[in-house]
Amino acid sequence: MGGWSSERPVSLMSGEGVAKALEARGHRVTRIDMGRDVAARLAEAAPDVVFNALHGTPGEDGTVQGMMDLMGLPYTHSGLATSVIAIDKELTKERLVPHGIPMPGGRIVESEELFERDPLVRPYVLKPVNEGSSVGVAIVTDDGNMGNPINRGARGPWQEFASLLAEPFIRGKELTTAVIGERALTVTELKPKSGFYDFDAKYTDGMTDHICPAEIPEDVAEACKDIALRAHRLLGCKGTSRSDFRWDDERGIAGLFLLEVNTQPGMTPLSLVPEQARHCGMSYEDLVEAIVAEALADARARQEATKA
User: Fold this and answer.
1) How do residues 81-116 score in pLDDT, each as one tens digit?
2) Domain assignment present for 140
3) Is 203 annotated as catalytic?
4) 260 carries an active-site annotation
5) pTM to 2 decimals?
6) pLDDT (tens digit, 9 = 90+) per residue, 30-64?
7) 25 in a domain, yes or no?
8) Cβ-based neighbour number of residue 61 at 10 Å
9) Centroid of chain to Cα 198
10) Exactly one of 78, 130, 133, 134 is catalytic; which is it?
């Protein structure tokens, strides 16, 4: 847990929650706040399985996964190849859209371009290609205070990232669906009390209402669950994933778009996967143990395949 990404505080909360849940079930747990000596600390701990509660890079992008593969350590959540693809929003589109998964259009733009002209018709969204938790997301509108074209001095992700993904803004509702193993759980609608569902809205108590299950038509709810499960399978996700959607409720099913698939969803008290699991009758401790059990089963299956 922890590490040095922009999502470090969330990872620490996720990791502590997971550790306490496992200890409550009688497991012996070693907490590792990841530093550059992580390989040595893992080797010293010699765990039966590593619970990966890291968020962002390098814990969610395949780097840590590759290290643990080399060390021969079983670990939870998705493997190297899946992590490399899913953390990159463009690679995710290249993998999913040919299989009929609806995702917004758009293109990669250099931040310098934004000070000369808009890449898309306003309103549009700018986001980093390789960040999660809505880190660095900006909605560019006609009536915003960013300028037209964007003012170089205006606060936004163009000050932090050399290139960004520009996508059309989809009006409507923010929806999300968790997948555990081979089961899509339910759909939650996220209603920020101000602004949009950014990093602060996700992780500050009281800033966002979670409506679980979402009060949406049954066909839209089933479409969310179907798309989330298909994306989970197509990307090769393990353990759990969370798919985030925007739904333009004036367009029916045609207005539903998958935004991204998170392979390391948060496990904090405000996190969506534990909330959906509770709705489906699974306690936080049951959820954590199910994720660990799948990781151990996958490790055994790989060992058997190697022997064969």
Assistant:
1) 999 999 999 999 999 999 999 999 989 999 999 999
2) yes
3) yes
4) yes
5) 0.91
6) 999 999 999 999 999 999 999 999 998 999 999 99
7) no
8) 23
9) 13
10) 133
